């Protein structure tokens, strides 16, 4: 998700609140050991090793203490210190000493920040004013009086390893939300409440769409029949759109020799995120593939190509595997096993604009069908870190200039993001916005001059000479599994008719109408409507309530009156009773799928 609050003042307030949190912790737990307390989107956190587990009651105590310090109007002031002085000041704080060692090694200046003023004398008749000292790079307000005491809230407790390394000590992370005004905080808390109600992990369980199993492993989802129905609908839509613009589907293996990824460049840039596979009969290094592009180069390279053969366009929906850290996994939106509606176009330079337009056209149509708004981001390489990318400066200059020109000529408004390019080339990313304004990167179109060069791909031109094709990587909605998770939250589980796993549920009032209800089920099923019959011996009211909780688009209620007239009583999700209709009329009224 994209960070939207970039106020430097808001960040200064959040950073200062992190110090007040650490101070309040030490007041209650003097033996606590402090880690780091950075600013994050919408707030801050602090990683701390406590002498015992803490609870939500502790958070309430910390909040009370923090508000008391705000009321004291404490000054906040920075001071440069030597490594020796820093080590002396934090001699009882091992994590701070570890940070000092890192700063010294990297030749970075050391600063400490004072919150309040140290008391030199103690007046037994009055409490000492608050004082806290922390190792910090800065970015603070000047006085705690600048903080609105009603505009922050300690949110939750989580676990975190020191420096993010599972081999290090596990600390307790306390998260806080903070804004400049109470109105902003209240709005954010309301947003979080709505986001929780839309959480695809919760809805996935409630609607019986997918599960995770410890025996299978983290980040490896198992899709139920209902979930598989939706996932296949998403994939089939992408397949149909691929066919429309001339892509042919291929199938490539899940495991590949390491040499393939060494040539493509993924081995050097990406190997820590790849799963290794071991053969019982060979010492060669194999990997589960994290992407499809290297395999597609080998299909291209399998025979001699002419300029008349281009463009060659391959689509691939194979499962991919990436060794994500367990703490970074998140339902369906961050997985270890997933597919992509992936495509690679090998073309001549004079064909780039046309192929770009074809892909962009279907992306726009598909996102409209899903009801997602979006904006375009031009992702370029980080010119200050060129070693992170493959290829010569001239190649990057050419590809980046060309992609920018394509966007400008098509009058596409875009944002520029330096450092977000793929390591082999620049890309145009589509950032979709869901129903509550959250942003998700979905589609992408990438220009790649590097991989064809590394694999020595060629075609014979009209001039009889050898030429290098350009490779256009593209994804229509990205990962269908990730899009599934996004859409669950976007629709709040109430899928449009064409995506709903059960589109119509027939509710029989009693056993006397079961034969007619079965006939209606067969008639609807013959038109490819996904229909279920509830023939349980339960009240119709209970059946309606349960079906509505499953968010089924249409309910058909059949009693003796409907049977006698060969009609059905229709109830539409969100609209209630729609009256009595013939089967033919009902089929005419239900919405169709997007054009494919």
Report what the structure shows:
- It is a single chain.
- The protein has 18 helices and 30 strands.
- By secondary structure, the chain is α+β, with helices and mostly antiparallel strands.
- The chain has three domains: 8-190, Threonyl-trna Synthetase, Chain A, domain 2 (Threonyl-tRNA Synthetase, Chain A, domain 2, 2-Layer Sandwich), CATH 3.30.980; 205-368 and 435-491, Bira Bifunctional Protein, Domain 2 (BirA Bifunctional Protein, domain 2, 2-Layer Sandwich), CATH 3.30.930; 504-589, 3-Layer(aba) Sandwich (Rossmann fold), CATH 3.40.50.
- Helix 1 crosses helix 2 (56-71), helix 6 (200-206) crosses helix 14 (480-491) and helix 7 (225-244) packs across helix 14.
- The protein is globular and about 95 Å long.
- It starts with 7 loop residues before the first helix and ends in a 7-residue tail after the last helix.
């Amino acid at each position: 998700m994209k960070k939207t609050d970039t106020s430097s003042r808001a960040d200064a307030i959040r950073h200062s609140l992190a110090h007040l949190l650490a101070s309040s912790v030490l007041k209650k737990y003097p033996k606590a050991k402090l880690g780091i307390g950075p600013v994050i989107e919408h707030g801050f956190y602090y990683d701390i090793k406590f002498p015992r587990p803490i609870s939500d009651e502790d958070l309430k105590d910390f909040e009370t203490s923090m508000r008391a310090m705000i009321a004291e109007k404490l000054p906040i002031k920075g001071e440069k210190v030597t490594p020796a002085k820093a080590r002396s000041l934090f001699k009882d704080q091992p994590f701070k000493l570890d940070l000092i060692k890192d700063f010294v090694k990297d030749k970075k200046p050391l600063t400490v920040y004072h919150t309040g003023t140290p008391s030199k004398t103690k007046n037994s008749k009055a409490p000492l004013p608050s004082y806290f000292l922390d190792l910090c790079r800065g970015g603070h307000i000047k006085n705690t009086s600048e903080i609105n005491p009603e505009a922050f809230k300690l949110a939750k407790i989580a676990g975190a390893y020191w420096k993010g390394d599972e081999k290090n000590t596990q600390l307790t992370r306390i998260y806080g939300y903070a804004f400049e005004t109470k109105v902003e905080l209240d709005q954010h808390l309301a947003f979080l409440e709505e986001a929780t109600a839309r959480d695809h992990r919760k809805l996935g369980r409630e609607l019986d769409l997918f599960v995770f199993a410890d025996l299978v492993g983290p980040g490896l989802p198992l899709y139920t029949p209902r979930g598989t129905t939706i996932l296949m609908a998403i994939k089939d839509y992408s397949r149909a759109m691929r066919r429309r613009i001339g892509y042919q589907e291929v199938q490539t293996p899940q495991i590949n020799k390491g040499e393939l990824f060494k040539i493509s460049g993924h081995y050097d840039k990406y190997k820590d995120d790849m799963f290794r596979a071991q053969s019982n009969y060979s010492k060669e290094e194999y990997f589960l593939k994290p992407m499809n592009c290297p395999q597609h180069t080998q299909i291209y390279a399998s025979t001699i190509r002419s300029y008349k053969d281009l463009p060659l366009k391959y689509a691939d929906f194979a499962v991919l595997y990436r060794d994500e850290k367990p703490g970074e996994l998140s339902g369906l939106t961050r997985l270890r096993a997933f597919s992509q509606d992936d495509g690679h176009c090998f073309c001549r330079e004079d064909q780039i604009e046309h192929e770009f337009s074809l892909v962009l056209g279907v992306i726009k149509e598909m996102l409209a069908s899903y009801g997602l708004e979006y904006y375009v981001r031009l992702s370029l390489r980080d010119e200050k870190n060129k070693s992170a990318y493959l290829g010569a400066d001239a190649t990057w200059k050419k590809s980046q200039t060309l992609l920018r020109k394509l966007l400008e000529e098509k009058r596409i408004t875009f944002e520029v993001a330096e450092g977000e390019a793929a390591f082999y080339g620049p890309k145009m990313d589509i950032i979709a916005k869901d129903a509550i304004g959250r942003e998700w990167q979905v589609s992408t179109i990438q220009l790649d001059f590097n991989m064809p060069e590394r694999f020595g791909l060629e075609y014979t031109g009209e001039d009889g000479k050898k030429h290098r094709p350009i490779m256009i990587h593209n994804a229509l909605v990205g990962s269908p599994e990730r899009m599934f998770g996004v859409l669950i939250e976007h629709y709040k589980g109430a899928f449009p008719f064409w995506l709903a796993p059960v589109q119509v549920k027939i509710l029989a009032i009693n056993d006397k109408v079961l034969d007619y209800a079965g006939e209606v089920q067969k008639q609807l099923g013959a038109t490819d409507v996904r229909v279920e019959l509830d023939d349980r011996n339960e009240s119709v009211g209970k059946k309606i309530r349960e079906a509505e909780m499953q968010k089924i688009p249409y309910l058909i209620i059949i009693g003796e009156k409907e049977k006698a007239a060969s009609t059905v009583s229709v109830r539409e999700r969100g609209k209630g009773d729609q009256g009595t209709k013939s089967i033919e009329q009902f089929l005419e009224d239900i919405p169709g799928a997007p054009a494919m």
